[in-house]
Write a structure and sequence with these properties.
The chain is α/β, with parallel strands linked by helices and 311 residues long. It contains 13 helices and 7 strands. The protein has one domain: 3-Layer(aba) Sandwich (Rossmann fold). The termini are far apart.
């Protein structure tokens, strides 16, 4: 059987977990060692050790700072607008899209599912880590916020966004998620899709979100963690200074989206035809058969969707 079929066969029936994640899929325990930790590959184990080294962390910051810019320069040549995974339900969402959006259906559906947890119409919206602005453009055009601000640390990405997405009420700002360059109570809604996993200090980011939200505002959040990172993640989530409205595990929906997402093709188009380079690209893009795809299927990774409210 192909890797795709093998992985799809392990997907559990669609489950809705609202607020309480105490009954997380039991398969996570099966995929972890006796001490509850994820059984990482040798390469991942090395990276995990390096991530605890302060000198390496400084080099990692440079990798994100300059590597992300390089990736943007590579991908914007082909007008790549989305850097996130996808989303699809069973039966399919069948979200009505403009012809110009159809090729990005599955990453768009992830944005749509995240953003429509509340009504964006007439609201001041901030997206933290907006990437190449595809989600910002789609949500501005279809959900009609009063204003929509996309923020990203990547200067190349922000420059591309400003040139590519010219819409009334939509603007882009270069800045750090852990030190948002906005006054207190500036926004009604903050959106963060599949980005906080890369932040150095996630609790600080959560604190910044609460600071820039107005009373009655909402934080709409989608992200992923490996099994041995979930306890720490849940502790961070429990300490967010906002009320948890809902939470849902969406592994199966994200896997369906990954099977149909064109990001891997967009990424490999600009890479040399070298096997190990393309394997790295596949793991980064989450293509069928990739490490992250398999882990979403067997429970070694958990992709979740949240809505928080600032009372």
């Amino acid at each position: 059987m192909s890797p795709r079929g093998e992985a799809r066969g392990t997907i559990a029936p669609r489950l809705l977990h609202v607020v309480d994640f105490g009954e997380r899929d039991a398969r996570v325990a099966v995929c972890a060692g006796d001490d509850g930790r994820l059984q990482r590959t040798p390469t991942e184990s090395l990276i995990d050790r390096l991530n605890r080294n302060p000198i390496f962390l400084k080099l990692l910051n440079l990798r994100f700072k300059y590597g992300y810019r390089f990736l943007s320069r590579l991908l914007t040549r082909d007008d790549v607008l989305f850097l996130n995974y996808g989303y699809e339900e069973d039966p399919p969402v069948a979200l009505p899209l403009a012809a110009s959006d159809e090729s990005d259906r599955f990453p768009i559906q992830l944005y749509h599912r995240t953003a429509t947890q509340v009504d964006l119409a007439g609201k001041k919206v901030l997206e933290v880590s907006c990437g190449h602005g595809g989600g910002a453009s789609y949500l501005t055009r279809t959900l009609h916020p009063a204003t929509y601000t996309g923020l990203d640390l990547n200067t190349v990405g922000i420059e591309f966004c400003r040139k590519r997405h010219n819409l009334p009420g939509l603007d882009f700002v270069q800045g750090n998620a852990e030190s948002l360059p906005f006054p207190d109570q500036s926004f009604n809604i903050v959106i963060n899709v599949e980005a906080a996993i890369n932040y150095q200090n996630v609790p600080r980011f959560f604190t910044e979100v609460e600071r820039v939200l107005r009373a009655g505002g909402h934080f709409l959040y989608a992200d992923i963690r490996y099994a041995d990172e979930i306890a720490a993640w849940e502790s961070e989530l429990a300490n967010i200074p906002m009320r948890l409205v809902s939470g849902q595990v969406i592994n199966a929906e994200v896997m369906r989206g990954l099977e149909k997402n064109r990001f891997l093709d967009q990424l490999t188009r600009r890479l040399p035809n070298i096997a190990f380079v393309r394997r790295i690209a596949s793991d980064y893009a989450g293509g069928p058969g990739s490490l992250i795809y398999r882990r979403l299927g067997n429970g070694e990774a958990s992709y979740r969707l949240f809505c928080f409210a600032k009372d």
